[in-house]
Automatic annotation (TrEMBL):
Binding site for ATP: 39
One Gene Ontology biological process: signal transduction
Family according to the record: Belongs to the protein kinase superfamily.
Taxonomic superkingdom: Eukaryota
Keyword S-adenosyl-L-methionine: no
Name listed for the protein in its UniProt record: Kinase family protein
Recorded GO MF terms: ATP binding; protein serine/threonine kinase activity
Keywords: ATP-binding, Kinase, Nucleotide-binding, Serine/threonine-protein kinase, Transferase
InterPro entries: Kinase-like_dom_sf, Plant_MAPKKK, Prot_kinase_dom, Protein_kinase_ATP_BS, Ser/Thr_kinase_AS
Amino acid sequence: MVALDLEFERYLGTGSFGSVSLFKYKRRRDGETLYAAVKTSGYKHAKSLYKEFQILSEFKGCSRIVQCYGNGVKQRFNDKGYVEYKIAMEYAAGGSLSNFVDRFKDRKLPDSMIREFTRMLLEGLATIHEHGYVHCDLKPENILVFPSSVYKNGAWRSSYQLKISDFGLSKRDGDTKWWHPRQPFAGTPIYMSPESISHGEIGKGLDLWSLGCVVLEMYTGKRPWWHTNYELEDLMKCYEPLFPRNLPCDAKLFLMTCFAFEPHERKDALTLLRQSFFHGDANKFTKLQMNAKIDNPDDFTLQLEKLSMMLSEIRTMC
């Protein structure tokens, strides 16, 4: 695709490692106009761009990861005579998740949409972690929204797909070689986990903590730690963001797992996908448990004990 004639349309935004612009081109087969997002970095951040392209190349065909085009990073001279480094990626017409929530009242998304978006993000994280990577900077600005339409109940309805982008800070799971006292953490502080802030620990638990921050933000319309003056020292003490009282019980259960004190207690993306948060609320779950057929009296007693513990935990959180 990069061999085609790309025509500049407009700037899409600027980040810490460069800028992203929209380009259009015509498909050779039928002449249809298509679009690509081109990420551009200067020499200072070229290494990060090369690393990002290499990582994205490992996720070809992954539906929850933004796709890159071409065979490598392209070098071009700009109008000032400096070398620029570029990669072409698929264009998200819906912008970032951060842009997307701006269109809703108080920046709060509907509950059903939050659950579906969270499922998509967990699917993306499961793929990333399966390849041995930790994203390290999961936040709304690095999540892209792809609008589409689905035919349902006799009418076309708007639908959205999320994809994770921006792998410039990503690292191998367990990598510690990058750590330096003057660079104690990898990503954006308010989305980072306690262990990553305090001693630079990089593991999949970091991404799951960040996911919890994103989910909380979709519910509240506010950045995590909105209720206090954010201090790194607070996070190092393993304080967690404040939950609104009106959150559904199963959402609280899900977030409590994401914000668990120990990284391993946050489980993994595939395990989180099996939580009741994605299969109905906690009340429906307990009703299914109570209606289940149990032939063995000992099994029945065990089920009651488990149910009692679960209900007690839910009551303390609601």
